[in-house]
Amino acid sequence: MGTKRLKLSPNSRSAWTPTLLGMALLAAPVLAPAQVSLATVVDLAQRNSATVKLAEADLKKAQGALAQTQDAFIPNFVIASNVGFSHGFPTGQPSVGSATMQSLVFSYAQRQYIKAARAGIDAANQRLKDAQEQVALDASTTYIELDTVNHELEAARQQAGFTTALLKIEQERAEAGVDSEIDLLQAQLTEANLRLQRFQLQTRAATLSKQLAVLTGLPDGSILPDRSSIPEIPAVTAEEAPRKLPGIDAAGSLARSKQFQAKGDDLAWRRPLIGFGAVYNYDSNELNSYSTYYKNFTPNNVSFGLQINVPFFDFALRAKAKVTAAEALRARVEAEQAQQQNDVQIATLTGNLQELQAMADVASLKQQIADAQLKAVLAQLELGSGASGPNAPPPVTPKAEQQARIDERQKYQDAQEAALGLAKARLGLLRALGHIQDWLNELHTK
Prior knowledge:
The protein has helices spanning 16-27, 38-48, 50-70, 108-175, 181-216, 246-268, 290-293, 315-383, 398-433, 436-441, and strands at 34-36, 76-80, 95-107, 223-225, 273-283, 300-309.
């Protein structure tokens, strides 16, 4: 997880790969963990995510809202029938069949509503992209953490073998009177601490495995991370050119939509609108006495014309305009607040990265020192120290070997944990800077 430049790579992976893999895992009667690439996990998580599905539904709703506002200018056509018997003076028109047509011809407010609906689609598209990126980030961090914990758990299992050997050696030394009872108790304490640590890693691995199962929809325990499928995470800083996050763009588009809506509601009570209407009726005198009272009765009747509405005292519309104006103001402030919060997050993550990088460097150096010390102990056990005389160091014992092995495995786990914290912080900064998609594109090249 070192430093590298960002680059955009085309998605060369077939879109069917995650689906076919998921179907194969779900159909298997007895599941054994299988290596699944990070790209596949991310694709499955995005397809399975309820958040993404809700965002897709919101997008369809926004598209429908735009069609509804635009279709107000398209004349509708309705056919109806109203057949009934009447006696005496007719109480209604004796229509057997009717056809009506209505549409909006001109409206200052409707133009603003259409702009509001288009901005709403932009907001829904950005929210969908933001949801997909967040799900991808969650799946990636969980996948990377599970891979790290699995490696730590393997080292912990190796430690268990070394502590068993150490306890046996210490027991023999205590019985021979070479070491005291305190040394034996100290070895037992070391074994107990490492056993506790191993149990904690097992619980953590089980939790992460369950989280991946929930994210992807695959059976629990069926995913074995493949470290080679994880691209290197760029060591970006706040000096990188930041891009707007989809979530921030969505907030801005929503604010514009609210502003157009407010302007439309304000024009609705200030400006007239013109509508068109046409009606055709086929009337019948068979079941009533309509012609007795109306001498010029004809079966076919048509009417059409324009309707002009000029609002003068419509206080309900004025009140609605005030409500939407307040909502527009709130949406604009929330968009500004989202940008400010992201700026603060970038500054915080940048500061944390410096500390995490230093911690990772320290842990890596400690691991290298422990590895070198272990090699030195093994060499002395095999060849001897090469020194003699009264001032020569005491010979290395099998006890020292087991202790060196235990320490080397512990330093390895510490280095893995420090690298994990650094990787998470880097991914978080990539997300805050708007560069996370560049890294996600690299998944399909692994």
